Amino acid sequence: MKGQNKLFIAIIIALILGVGIGGLVHVKYPESAEPFSKNIKLLGTVFIRLVQMIIAPLVFTTLVVGIAKMSDIKMIGRVGTKAMLWFISASLVSLFIGLILVNWLEPGHVTKLPIQDVASADELLKSSKSFSLEDFVKHMIPKSLFEAFATNEVLQIVVFAIMFGVALANLGEEYSKPVVKLFDIMAHGILKMVGYIMWFAPLGVLGAIAAVVATNGFEIFKVYAIYLRDFFFALGVLWLVLLLVGYFILGNRLFDLLKRIKEPLLIAFSTTSSEAVFPKLVEELEKFGCNSRVVSFILPLGYSFNLDGSMMYMTFASIFIAQIYGIEMTLGQQITMLLVLMLTSKGIAGVPRASLVIIVATCSMFGIPPEGIALILPIDHFCDMGRSMTNVLGNTLATSAVSKWEGQLTEPLDKI
After folding, report:
1. Where is this protein found (predicted)?
2. Own/partner pairs, 45-50, CB within 8 angstroms, 24+ separation
3. What is the pTM of this model?
4. Which end of the chain is less crowded, N or C, counting CB atoms within 10 A of the terminal residue's CB?
């Protein structure tokens, strides 16, 4: 938590420095704004390339481990099936809410930023016209895993990882356990790297903000205010949907559940990590009356496959970046992006800012400038507070709902 606070402070300092330096260049040296912007943007490029470097191995290892460990579903049977149905439904609803509201509110159209790379925009327009089901299928199924890794083709990596994970799950523990353990260690090592790479974020922020302010002046900050307002409105809509479904299943016991998880929700909000509250959440759910076996199965699975707040943010942020750069996406492209996010987000652990990795990969896949992620990085901490808290709520409701469906939800233990 202390490390996260230090990083947050460093990003804020970098933001202030970037605004100051960019503003000085914009006002005092307008003739130098363009070359200055081009050079200082390299700091952001370094950060983005570091993030892109770990995308492929992170997606591959976490997804293989997640799928391989799902062999427990065979033992639990109905519980696993109901859990996965909840996860898929909640993920699709979260993605759709983000997609609908970002298109309705259009936060990225408030300020038009010039597209820096005209060639890439022309290329995007050409590829949009020739978009077809055949192209999508070719793009989805890899010819070679090594080629997919070399070119950061995340969707192809996901397809291979799912097939490999299913094969490991059905191979038998005697053979699969060493491989799964190796990939699990690799996944944790890569996630540790994510923590290191995030310390380059202040430099990325400094470069991105200084470049934008030097070129566009202070008008850019209208975007931040409206972006936060629109994102938290969208988050409120998602909460309303989740709580209505929760009330439909749990009835008045929903209010008791919310009282019990108010502390985990607050911790997740302040630390921007839903994983920080995992032990406390297990304890509170068992006290609430959920079966301990159901909790021990669904909650860990949910932390990889049911991150509702992060899912909604992925569509919201990806389309927002496209809007910022003036890139209009067709309905077909947006639905395809939604389905791609549905797949690529699975298996990514609920660590702070992990969703940014997926957003960068998705933007690259659809021809949206991935450096646009640096523009929202200064306020991502505030967005992460909201989505981490939403992830905790989503997994709590999933565990409680499946317990109720299985007839395994008893009276609260501290009231018996």
Report:
1. Cell membrane
2. 45/207, 45/371, 46/200, 46/203, 46/204, 47/197, 47/200, 47/201, 47/203, 47/204, 47/207, 47/374, 48/204, 48/360, 48/370, 48/371, 48/373, 48/374, 50/197, 50/200
3. 0.66
4. C
